[in-house]
Amino acid sequence: MSRVVIIKGRDLRIVEKVLDEFQNPKEKRVVIKPNLVNSSPPPTTTPVDIVETLAKYYYEMGYDVFIAEGSGWCETFEAYKRLGYLRLQRYAELVDLNEDEFEVVRNENALFLKEFEFPLTLKNAYVISVPVLKEHSITGVTLSLKNMLGATIGEKARVAKKGRFHRSLNESIVDVNTYIKPKMAVIDGRVAGIGGELFSKPKVMNLIIISNDLVAADAIGARYLSKNPFSIRHIKLAHEIGLGIADLNRVEVYEVSEVHNKKQ
Hints:
Blueprint: E1 2-8, H1 13-19, E2 29-34, H2 48-60, E3 64-69, H3 76-82, E4 93-96, E5 102-106, E6 115-119, E7 125-130, E8 132-136, E9 140-142, H4 144-147, H5 169-180, E10 184-194, E11 201-204, E12 207-211, H6 214-224, H7 233-240, E13 251-256, E14 261-263
Parallel strand pairs: 1-13, 2-3, 2-7, 3-4, 7-10, 8-10
Antiparallel strand pairs: 1-12, 5-6, 8-9, 10-11, 10-12, 13-14
Helix pairs in contact: 5-7
């Protein structure tokens, strides 16, 4: 069974305690992938404080830490600057994946992307997807799996730099995750984004979802957004090809708060 930890509250110190319960990365490099789709403030984008918590945690453990994003609707370093990410350079190197060097990899069994430009920053790395708990106008939700579309090389355009994936969006989401194989999801639902992906309306939910199964994490996240996980096509596809578990009957859920730990 997959394990998902739900932190109830806003205290980021608990994130560190939860991470202590997971196996330490075997890789030397840790790459943290926030959702900075544009330079709008949270909940459209991932709050800098939760990324700082993760970067500091792994930096102090001796890992080489990178914060990597390829913004789709603005220049990546514009988002880093406007959203306060530049200060995190004390713990991590900031990378614009739109401009990263890459190698071409192939998978004839892919659902849509038989060929993929793999950013070299992510090669042999422990990749953590750190999205906001957020709705999406096309896919229903944009959580840890959908967030990984930003972990790709950008097209030479001012906006819609990842537009090529929209020709088969749900299949592309699954394929990108199959190629990159992120190892952990940390979904920030302290303030969720409602109504769309680019200009989200805030809804206070006071929770953070952590799992080393991105499909399970997203299934739980979809449930908190009042959606059936199997109604979200990319979650269903990811479950069907074995990327993770979306069946909530096969997921162990633990709730953690400031005062007690409880198995749900």
